[in-house]
Amino acid sequence: MTCRFTVSLSTAVMCVAALASPVSGQVRAVRPVAQIAAIPHAELRGIVLDEQGRPLAGAVATALGSTTAYAVSDVEGKFLFQTLPYGPYLLRVHLQGYTPAPSRLIQVNRETLPVSSVVLTRRSSGEEPVGVLAAGVGPTDAGNAAAGDGETHDHGEVAWRLRHLKRSVLKDAAVGLVGVAGASGSFLDDSLDGLGWAVGSPARFATSLLADVPWNGHFDLLTSTSFDRPQDLFSLDTMPRGMAYLALEAPTAGGQWAVRGAMTQGDLSSWIVAGSYRRAPASHRYEAGLSYGMQSYLGGNAEALAAVAEGDRNVGVLYGYDDWTITPRVRVNYGAKYARYDYLSHQALVSPRASVTLKPRLDDSFRIRAAVSRRVSAPGAEEFAPPSTGLWLPPERTFSPLTAARGFVPQEMDHVEVAAEREWAGGLVTGVRAFHQAVDDQIVTLFGVVMPGAVPSTLGHYYVASAGDVDSSGWGVSVSRAMPARVRASVDYTNAQSSWLTRSPDADALALVAIAMRRDAGQRIHDVTTSIESTLPVTETRLFAIYKINSALADADAGAPGAGARFDVQVNQSLPFLNFSGGQWEMLVAVRSLFRDDLLDASVYDELLVMRSPKRVVGGVTVRF
């Protein structure tokens, strides 16, 4: 994702964290609130020592709480967490070759909080991590120990019968398979030694490799449903859907590994998995990852069944981005994303991007950024690709082209932007930007459409079409600030002038079902987006909200686009009375009418041309471990 130094809602965010992790841990590596701005933060310090009191460098310290953060100890053994929201955190420290220290529960409740030293004990050379070998896979010296000199044997009747049980070739082979010494007497023993080594050596290697990795993660059980009107919540067409989500993170001295997966079951069965590696902060850092999503529809919607002709859809994404600080004043970011959609006629889509950030003075926070990108988006891509903001959910809806003969046509957008940003005293951040976009086949998303001669579609199915080609130019300003009482707020205003260049290839079909999709040759767009986030200190309740007002939202009940509003509200409530064995429980409730999750590098019309966007409700529990 592009870290834009812009004033847009997502701009102020990306400047704070190049890779954000989701609220409740479900967004690409951090929560959406981090995408907007960090709440008033605290510092957590500590030092890692060995059993003789000497500092240990390269130890990985992990703080697991309302967010997940990690730090690496320096040559003096010191580590520092700089941006931790107030609340309880589980502190863990790991270092390869040392026994992990017991976890500590620390209450972060003031600006700077020192931590007493953490002592790690070196693992003895003969000590094996508890893992696969303990389960009896691979060679072991247990047999030698049993046959060692001076060993006292059990002289009971059962033990005597077991020792004198008549062996066969198969019995000897079974014993030899696990490599127990003292089972000689069979011609298969020697040949099975190699098999035991082949099984045991990789198992021992994998066990020792993973034993020193500080795995963190969370498991979510969520329920989701959509509605257009409140009474829809009691309709059989909007029955809640259950979803399961699992995330694992392994921060190391060199970087951070992350694996995520989500699945849902029902008439629309779907799952999505993703993995990524992000190098630790350095002058030259990078991120690479992949994701794969699938949906299979087994319901009775004729339009959905016709759209998913082969019974399922599959989407794979590969990406890689490089962030290189050439000098303290110059930083370059470049990379690309490759996606393959099996339901497109041209299945492979490539989206490159590049940017340069200049800092005229080292003693000043003022920055200038120039960015250029080409983004190719498939209709329905938001159902499969992991979002950069918002909850991380598997595909929830089916979709089909409004004009069946034309099929699915991807949207292509060339984007150029120049932005400037400065941070002032008191946590005030201001920015300005100017941009130009050239879009081919702007995507239109239609809910609640009634096609002539067809059954009205439900909220679980929507249509996609093309609105034609459009060029847009504009500018924007933004202001954000951290206020007392742990509240962060931002306001972003965007002014854009668009020019539609070609008539929509789906104009005839759109005229039948969506008059509000009609656009004039030229159009002025005004957009105000506000965000607020806060954490209540006593109850540890986190609130995140976005409210978007735009002058050109598609309105299904009007003959032309007009002013409208959409929102996204999310509440996380800590449940400390359910915490056990170092785990932390949270309750999540989210309601939103925004359809798009990705606020970065998006066309100004992506959200505006979503007609009758349904309201989505998500609730459930999160267990962090």
Short description:
This protein is mainly beta. It has helices at residues 9-16, 32-36, 142-146, 157-163, 169-177, 189-211, 302-307, 507-513; strands at residues 42-50, 60-64, 68-72, 78-84, 87-94, 98-99, 104-108, 112-114, 118-122, 216-227, 241-251, 255-264, 268-279, 284-297, 312-327, 330-341, 348-358, 367-377, 398-401, 411-423, 428-440, 443-446, 461-466, 470-483, 487-500, 522-536, 541-553, 562-574, 584-592, 610-611, 615-624. The protein has three domains: 9-122, Carboxypeptidase-like, regulatory domain (Immunoglobulin-like), CATH 2.60.40.1120; 133-141 and 157-211, no CATH class; 216-624, Porin (Beta Barrel).
Folded structure, characterized:
With 625 residues, this protein is mostly beta strands. The protein is globular, with a radius of gyration of 29 Å. The protein has an 18-stranded antiparallel β-barrel. Helix 5 packs parallel to helix 6 (189-211). The chain is 11% helix and 46% strand.
